[in-house]
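Inverse folding, one chain.
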């Protein structure tokens, strides 16, 4: 089971790294350390899954978007610019 999980995580990280690198190349995201960024993004996604199950309604869309923006190094909400 551990090997299956590790393989799945490695595939997710590889895909996210590719998409993130493409977004940087296209000028859609700023330069960043992709290992740290992808690790942070994976941690955020797992944390939000747990929060959704155990604390329904605790994490609003606005909070989730702000968290994602901070990991990606962008701001989508005008009041946070």
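Residues assigned per position:
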């Amino acid at each position: 089971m551990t090997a299956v999980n590790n393989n799945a995580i490695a595939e997710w990280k590889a895909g996210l790294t590719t998409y993130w690198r493409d977004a940087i190349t296209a000028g859609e995201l700023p330069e960043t350390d992709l290992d740290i960024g992808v690790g942070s993004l994976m941690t955020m996604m797992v944390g939000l899954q747990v929060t959704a199950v155990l604390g329904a309604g605790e994490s609003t869309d606005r909070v989730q978007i702000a968290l994602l923006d901070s990991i990606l190094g962008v701001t989508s909400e005008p009041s946070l610019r």
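The chain has a mean pLDDT of 89. The first helix runs from residue 2 to 25.
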